[in-house]
Design goal:
Helix content: 55-70%
Radius of gyration: 25 Å
Strand content: 5-15%
Shape: globular
Oligomer: single chain
Number of helices: 23
Order of helices and strands: HHHHHHHHHHHHHHHHHHHHEHEEHEEH
Largest sheet: 5 strands, mixed
Length: 506
């Protein structure tokens, strides 16, 4: 057993090493990370975009110095803990060391390397989905009610991390009802556990109520602007590709849940998968919403394959080959799926990137870098140029920095050496304007300059284009920094009007 845990430790170590080697020094943080990190400066029971747990993690990162090392630490940690949990699932299902190694290898060399690369709620979400299934397996194997309360706590934390965990429960309920495990609904402790879960999420629900349920408007906008463009065939295709190296293990797990007698107590997991995926397809969800489903099914499949490959030449041949498959399939992906090559290298070697469609952005056009990679460039340049202009303007009075999007505002606040608290009419920044201060000057960061100088310049004594983002590989290339000095009016009233207009139904 001690040797088993030494191998688990090596997998955890390998996970951390891999995560820290996936991003080259030419790349900065991703635009989404800047928003999540800035929430540490505005701790609350809820946000317009996400629940509060990630802001608590951001606060810890801030207390630790806000370095890139600590920004990347928590996603890597949650990925490593996911490996630990699936290891425990295999143990609970009486799997041997081979099953543990196969499961851990499949989790390590998978889409989770992409997920665990960024500081956002998805990494913890996958871990919590996996933990939820694990404690339910523990409950049905032991029928000890402590696991129901543990499940309630996991759900509560998951809800405060990302509302998507509700889909896990929506899939679980019919999955349990169609199997013998429906008897759980006669267990009174289930309902006490539900009360516990409600108490955990109540502060956020009350925040939603007092703020007119912004999550509803957020979901409506998401549906109208993004989910409406989701292709259900692409969703299904992504499910195959996410864990392509252990697809055979997942399929084996589905088969075992239906036909393998030792798994009768957890047969609900098969139907849970069917119902959860069906719900995602009905709502045209984004493909990565379902990633949290798969670690558990990989563990189940690995235990079943260990049973099949336990004797003779099959054991000697099939076991090592099955472990090698996810590694061999990962190697070519390592070359193109991660920002571990310089922008110049990608420009000089675009063939494989283009072949896999990685150069196509959401505008439907091919660009020099994958969109996610370009979203990790140009931020330091923007912050440095805004810093210079802010220092010059601040000599003549209070200055506010207003950006077009949360990435710009968050990046300026992260990199600024002048203590800037940039804001935006986008995402949670709508709630972070300081309108108690009279502003003499404005720095306006605009993606599309249009007639900004002419229109806004009318209410200032002096106006100019101070600078722009010139990084040819940045998605923000061409973003202009406008400088407006000496306000002729109290611009706070105009800002308040724009905030109200942008909030709309919030």
């Amino acid at each position: 057993m001690k040797n088993n845990y030494l191998i688990l430790f090596l997998f955890v170590l390998a996970k951390f090493i891999l995560q820290y080697s996936l991003i080259g020094s030419e790349y900065e943080l991703h635009r989404d990370e800047y928003l999540h990190l800035d929430q540490a400066n505005h701790l609350a029971r809820g946000y317009l975009s996400v629940p509060p747990v990630n802001s608590w993690l951001a606060f810890i990162v801030k207390m630790l110095g806000n370095s890139v090392f600590w920004v990347k630490f928590f996603p890597a940690l949650f990925g490593a803990l996911t490996i630990v949990v699936v290891w425990k699932i295999v143990e609970e299902l009486k799997g041997d060391l081979y099953a543990k190694i196969l499961t851990s290898t499949g989790i390590l060399f998978s889409v989770l390397l992409r997920v665990n690369m960024l500081f956002q709620p998805t990494s913890l979400e996958v871990l919590l989905w996996t933990m939820l299934y694990y404690v339910l397996i523990k409950y049905f194997n032991s029928e000890k009610v402590k696991w129901l309360y543990t499940a309630a706590i996991i759900f509560g934390i998951g809800f405060l991390n990302k509302y998507n965990i509700a889909f896990a429960v929506l899939g679980l309920i019919p999955g349990l009802l169609v199997t013998k495990q429906r008897k759980i609904f006669l267990q009174k402790h289930l309902y006490f556990a539900l009360i516990l879960a409600l108490l955990i999420v109540l502060p956020n629900i009350l925040w939603q109520y007092h703020n007119h349920f912004p999550v509803i408007k957020h979901m409506k906008e998401l549906s109208e602007r993004q989910l409406v463009n989701v292709d259900r065939f692409d969703f299904v295709k992504s499910q195959i590709l996410f864990f392509i190296g252990v697809l055979f293990v997942i399929i084996s797990g589905f088969y075992a849940l239906v036909f393998y007698q030792p798994f009768e107590k957890i047969r609900f997991l098969f139907w849970t998968y069917i119902f959860t995926i069906a719900i995602f397809l009905v709502f045209k969800a984004k493909d990565y919403y379902a990633i949290g489903l798969y670690p558990t099914y990989i563990a189940v499949g690995a235990v079943f394959l260990a049973h099949l490959f336990e004797k003779g030449w099959v054991k000697k041949l099939a076991r090592p080959i099955s472990i090698l498959i996810p590694i061999l399939l990962f190697l070519p992906l390592y070359q193109v799926a991660f920002p571990n090559k310089s922008p110049q290298y990608i420009v000089d070697h675009p063939e494989n990137y283009k072949k896999l469609g990685l150069l196509r952005w959401e505008d439907g056009k091919d660009h020099s870098l994958p969109q996610d990679f370009s979203d990790m460039r140009g931020w330091k340049e923007l912050a440095e140029k805004v810093d210079r202009e802010y220092e010059a303007l601040s000599k003549s009075g209070n200055t506010i920095v207003i950006c077009d999007n949360y990435g710009e505002a968050g990046a300026i606040n992260y990199y600024s050496h002048k203590g800037i608290r940039a804001v935006s009419f986008n995402a949670d920044y709508l709630n972070w304007f300081n309108l108690s201060t009279y502003y003499h000057n404005v720095i306006r960061v605009k993606e599309n300059p249009e007639d900004e100088l002419e229109q806004t310049g009318k209410i200032f004594q002096r106006s100019k284009i101070a600078d722009s983002v010139t990084d040819q590989y940045a998605r923000e290339k061409g973003t202009v920094i406008f400088s407006f000095e000496g306000a002729k009016i109290d611009i706070r009233k105009r800002l308040q009007e724009e905030i109200i207009e942008e909030k709309g139904g919030y």
